[in-house]
Design brief:
293 residues; mainly beta; Protein Transport Mog1p, Chain A; 2 domains
Length: 293
Amino acid sequence: MVNYSFTNKKNNSWCQISIIKSTSSKGSIDQDFESEWQELVVKNYKPTDAPQLNEVQEADGWKIKAGGTKFTFNNNVAMALLTTMSGFNRCVSIVAATNSQDYLKDIEALLASVDLKKPETITQPVTGNNSNNATIIGTWGISASDQSSYAVNNGINGYISRQYTFNANGTYYFYIKTFQYVLDKLLLTKENGTYQISGNNITIIPQKSIIEAWSKKDGTDNWGKLLNTQNITLENQTYQFTKHYFPGIHEWSLVLQADKPTNRDGPFNGGTTFSNAWIYGIPCNKCLIKLPD
């Protein structure tokens, strides 16, 4: 963290700006902003009002969300401003707090000077034998917020998280957790089966796939009680796969490509960087889908 402090003794005004070291993204700009707001603003300044938000902006593959609110410091009104930038599986934030609007132009100038760069990618070569299974063994996740016009306009974005776990014995597990404010239940997709690798192709062969509906515990995204279960049509699928390393964020990602979207993976999210692709990252501990007890 880098801190800058300014004070004016003549009018007792002050301003503090903190640039926070980047962390792993929670999966979407909305999740990142909410997490950073709670950690950096609510804990430190204890505001009583929800943030006033700006529209999400985009720049070179990054999404930028900003918001601010008032708080009380030494019996005087002050304001806290949070700008969060999310992209390429990373999240970085800048927090500004001040008791005077005189500093707003300086804050805006600093934010405008931030240069968001698109990380370079390094492709890991793929060999043509099944020993290459080791390159994908582990857990890979992806998350997206609900971007329907109704959800966005009413500030009730939920999220959909998807997660593969590939085991060394050729089996896999796949989960989807769906949370939406407008639904009175949580949805959990559970799938298991086997996978086969040939060259840069991976074939997913599901053996069982179900979707469960769960009540919301206390109205949150925590699991309540199991309501019902139904089977899902099995979907065999062959993908082209590549592992890409992003030097700027020091992380590997698993890129799956197919001719068209699948029910399992949902809409493509590779953007212009990877056409017809999904980019799965190594999820942080808090980002892992926690299964019901």
